């Protein structure tokens, strides 16, 4: 039987009844009505791949970066990724600053892989994902995952078609995780996390980054009982007392439990809440600095919407407050504004850990010990690297395609090889000139393409989708 958290109106572990009813009642099934049918080709697609829905790019809220600035940032990030251990050890503040400015889109997937430690995990567990991918999986979780695929970003071109390559890769990643952590299984909120990752990297990379997020950044979030997310809800509520006393008093007056409004925010890392440009900026900072970024985003939104008596006039009761928090006003979702507020808000790892111990003590006094023993939380990329120092070999890039520059100086060995190839080419040319001309016959008429060619084309297509070496997507 699927694991379910009772008593707070949540259905996070995904019972079959909830998931088979075309998404009705699902916390994450708000935009399912178009999925399953191919999106018409004439629909305009934004630069992130969305054809509609709440995530579609809006020029009013997004910040435009000049192309010259983007190229400069790409060069800087390439240098950092090529010398990752040195930058993290000696210039971590610069890495953090560049994450706050936004990772260049062309390098975002690779940067996330390095920030989370997913690259190191992949190198230390070569063949593990393929092994998990080849296993059938637990039928209980397989059935629930399959029923949940069409709910994930149905307005994105990658996930729009039922059975398309996006949904197939999403299934592979989620199924592999249930085999990797059978004691956890599958939680519905993991699907949008995995989907965001698949928009930026191949399935194997997405799997290892998902593992790092679940085990290092948000440990216990997706386990039975959802105790970790409830505990973080109490931490958020306590921090709000300091950040915005007005908002805190309002929520306390109406007995609005944090679990009712922050669950989707934190468990999906705001991927279903903010405009897409902002989602990516938040993720850049979150994967660099850890969970404190999610706390800051939540606190900024609560302060913006409920932080003054004037704003509270529109929400005099619990229902009106919940409606306000479900539909965040556009002026608070401007990219430049929100990113600035997140960076400026003074909430540190120490503040979160201090409050964590306070709330954990209160939890034990009122409810007893936690049923799920989660590993300690890692606050960002630096903490992960310090806990598990990688070797240079683990960080070495393995490009699939290597292009030689014609201007690059050649070694003696390369020059000798080139001379040998040149002599062989000249000999072949002389042989051809001595032979009588022959009429070339095409063994395969145009109307009957070579079956061998078809097989090779299909095989190469499959290889490109599931490449074992992953730098080709940059």
Keywords:
474 residues, 24 helices, disordered N terminus
Please compute the radius of gyration using only Cα atoms.
26 Å
Label the overall shape.
Answer: globular
The major sheet is characterized as: none
Q: Terminal Cα separation, in Å?
A: 42 Å
Indicate the low-confidence ranges by residue numbers: 1-11, 14-34, 36-40, 435-474
> Mean pLDDT across all residues, rounded?
80
Summarize the structure in words.
Helices cover 56% and strands 0% of the residues. The protein is mainly α and 474 residues long. Residues 1-11, 14-34, 36-40 and 435-474 have low confidence and may be disordered.
Short structural description:
This protein is mainly α and 474 residues long.
Q: What layout of secondary structure does this protein have?
A:
Elements: H1 16-20, H2 67-82, H3 84-90, H4 92-101, H5 108-116, H6 118-124, H7 128-134, H8 139-148, H9 165-180, H10 190-198, H11 203-217, H12 227-243, H13 245-253, H14 258-267, H15 276-289, H16 292-306, H17 309-312, H18 318-326, H19 335-344, H20 349-367, H21 381-387, H22 392-395, H23 412-434, H24 451-465
